[in-house]
Amino acid sequence: MNLKLKFNLVFATLFALALVVAGGIVYRLVLKNAQAEVVHDARRMMDVALAVRDYTVTHVKPHLDPLLDRHFLPETVPAFAATETIARLAKAQPGYGYKEATLNPTNPRNAAVDWEREVVERFRASPDLKDQTGEIADASGTKFYVARPIQIRNAACLACHSTPEAAPASLITKYGREHGFGWQLNEVIGAQVVSVPTQVANDKAREVATAFIGTLVGVFALLFVALNMLLQRWVVTPVRQVAHAANRFSQGEMDTPEFPEGRKDEIGSLQRSFNRMRRSLTKAMDLLRR
Ligand code: HEC
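ok -> structure tokens follow
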């Protein structure tokens, strides 16, 4: 095995090792980062929903309440305001979602589906549970969700959600008498559920990791070429020349020329040694001949 092949084998092995270790670490790190970003995103969306709810109660509802006798305006309902606002946001940010998933909802679109029902049941079973997070997959991809319980803490809610008789007539006209009644004070009746797509963040993470690994491969390829060129030029070729000259000289070609003596490194010292040996041998041969 020649010198260059040995160097290249060692270099390629080290490179493969470095690539696996560094690539693995970087990929793990960016993926973790992406996941943290998704969680952050979901929590921020939840805060947006809460802000819209609060705004509706303090700024919209008081103005619209006097109209309640004539016809019911869902714009006064915080659940409606938050759901509608985030549905509009989701048009610009596909995959984002917000739902006030409820076991027995006034508006059927708020009915909890299978997995949401389980989330709500867990909240109902453990009143101390403040939020739940997790991942779900549906037709549009994998999503991360954050859920918070909706508990009836205020007796005023029961004006519309206890019995059809207690509810405003305009509400019954619009929504009927079947759904959204029978809620109890302090009961957990549903959950606010924010969902955020994980795909975008994961794709971005993969892109960053790929770019990093690509750069690493590029740098190593450059080093590989440079190392080979320098090895050839500084070591392999001059050593071969000395070996070739020594070979010729040992076979009696006394006119084998000397090497120039400018080089200051180990190869230079090898060349000088050859020159010295050549001179001594020539002198010895001369003496013998005489
Ligand atoms: C003036 C009547 C009224 C009052 C008071 C009221 N709601 Fe509602 N609520 C509604 C109506 C109507 C809807 C359905 C809105 C829609 O079309 O999405 C609704 C929807 C909801 C929903 C979404 C699930 C569903 O039933 O469709 C939740 C959760 C909710 N209300 C909770 C509350 C809470 C908590 C309170 C008290 C802080 C409260 N509501 C007070 C009328 C009322």
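The beta strands are 97-102, 132-138, 141-151, 188-197.
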